[in-house]
Prior knowledge:
This protein is of the alpha/beta class. It folds into three domains: about 5-60, Alpha-Beta Plaits (2-Layer Sandwich); about 75-150, CATH 3.30.300.110; about 175-340, Rossmann fold. About 25% of the residues lie in helices and about 35% in strands. It is built from ten helices and 17 strands. The chain has a seven-stranded mixed sheet. Helix 5 (about 180-185) packs parallel to helix 6 (about 200-210). The structure holds S-adenosylmethionine. S-adenosylmethionine (SAM) binds near residues 181, 202 and 221. S-adenosylmethionine (SAM) binds near residues 202, 222, 250 and 264.
Amino acid sequence: MSRASTGKANLAARARRIDADATLKEIISRGLLDKSRKVLERDGCVEIPILEPIFGWDIVRQEEPLFYRGSPDLAKSLAEELPPQCIDLLPRGWYIQGDIIVVKIHPDLAPYQSCIGQALLNYYPRCKTVLRDLGIEGQLREPKREAIAGTNTKTVHKENAVLFELDATKVMFSAGNLRERMRMSRFGKGEFVVDMFAGIGYFTLQMAVHSRPRKILSIELNPVAFEFLCKNILLNHVEDIVEPIHGDCAKVTPQGVADRVVMGMVQVTDRYLQTGISALRPGGVLHYHQTIPTKSFPDAAVQDVTNAALALGRKAEILQCIRVKKYSPGVVHAVIDARIDKSN
Ligand SMILES: C[S@@+](CC[C@H](N)C(=O)[O-])C[C@H]1O[C@@H](n2cnc3c(N)ncnc32)[C@H](O)[C@@H]1O
């Protein structure tokens, strides 16, 4: 009996060829890639095998799936090396930045982390290093990561035709924000944009490469992230569009000039809201990111925007409220798009 007829649903997410790379990475980051089947091309689209349906995506049932001979399965690979009680704690998801694998490992598995790293490298021969992810710290969003296999922590990550050079132990790159970066790539044509928390260019470069704004002012406080931002502007040949500024956006954001302001920070973004709103000309659009309790989505973030606009004598028209990702238990990363006008 073929494996296709054993009752498995054999679901796949369909994507246009141009979106396939980014869609695959999103699926891997959610731990939903069915590694037993191959990615296929059908009717001009790419079918990426998944373990369970993803709400709102274009999902198909594959009639003729193609299976790998030996599918990646950490539990199987490490059955001899780990005590049985540890097998269930093995990671089921990880993500790949360039040629680096980033994985969260349960604290009880720390003594086995180098075997886990090596097993992951065996699945991805083009990858050189595996980093254990221990979270992100502070206002400068510095990752805590340690190499558990390989030593090279610098890489160039390609996403949606944009190149990001980075050191994965020094700067963050959020796999969960992929859809938002893709969305941003469609905004800004001909506009003057201010990216107040630019990082290494997550939103700036997607916009600059795909939408060609007139100008993007990209502000970043962390000196290491700023260095990579400057490198990435050159790497993507958008130095005629992007002006990087090393500094605190609370102090260097211009006033009343921007068609669009991106506030891609979480937790403390409300402190900068009046600065972001003041940067906009009447009719300009704000993208306000914030982490809020899931049960108060989107009201808590919408209130932040409307109150800050009101305090400045301006009016906010809410255009869209999006859940970017689950941030932590009971907390969602939200983004609110709002048009900011003069008050009537
Ligand atoms: C969370 S990261 C951006 C993440 C991005 N939204 C993504 O897609 O992954 C936010 C960046 O803002 C920078 N930052 C924090 N406070 C800042 C400030 N006051 N002015 C400018 N940049 C700041 C941090 O150093 C960090 O690089």
